[in-house]
Amino acid sequence: MAERDVNPMLKTALELGPVLGFFVAYLWLKDHVFTIGGTEYEGFIVVTAGFIPVLLASMGVLWYLTGHLSRMQIMTAVLVVVFGGLSVWLNDERFFKMKPTLIYFLFGGLLAFGLARGQSYLRTVMEGLMPLEQEGWMILTKRVMLFFFALGIANELVWRFLSTETWVYFKTFGLSAALFAFFMLQGKLFARYSIDEDAS
């Protein structure tokens, strides 16, 4: 099914809004403890519990407007529900903090599996955005695979050895900045292997 056009600002708000909302809510409630059903929950757990339905609602609206959700968005939502739900159910923030690690290792592993078969699964997802020659896709896929594994390791180090607040800043801004910087640094590869669609 073809993706329907939607206002870019609205689409961006639906994609980033829940994450920024989580960040703001955490800063607001991080020092609070809530007693619910006789059990004490720290602010992080309460914010996580609120983040899950907000993310699902945002993705539902995005799907309604565009008629499309990427595999990455769907998988991310599944992992948020599973590991966010475990954090809330078991009152243990570690499960939610593990989620980015699993996401990056999962997608890095899928790219590695494709490369072992001589294929670029990244091309399947992004070809419409960046028309590249096959060799360019293979090089980019290898780089993205290694980058995803590096992000997964970085997330593990941050949540295990630094404070929860540091992890929230890292999750909200650090990972996004790293992704942006990574693709900006691929400019030479894009220039060398890009396909002139008009010429072709």
Automatic annotation (TrEMBL):
InterPro entries documented for this protein: YciB (IPR006008)
PANTHER family in UniProt: INNER MEMBRANE-SPANNING PROTEIN YCIB, INTRACELLULAR SEPTATION PROTEIN A-RELATED
Keyword set, alphabetical order: Cell inner membrane, Cell membrane, Membrane, Transmembrane, Transmembrane helix
GO cellular component terms listed in the entry, alphabetical order: plasma membrane
Compartment annotation: Cell inner membrane
Entry function: Plays a role in cell envelope biogenesis, maintenance of cell envelope integrity and membrane homeostasis.
Topology with respect to the bilayer: Multi-pass membrane protein
Segments passing through the bilayer: 12-29, 41-65, 72-90, 102-122, 143-162, 168-185
The protein's name in its UniProt record: Inner membrane-spanning protein YciB
Family: Belongs to the YciB family.
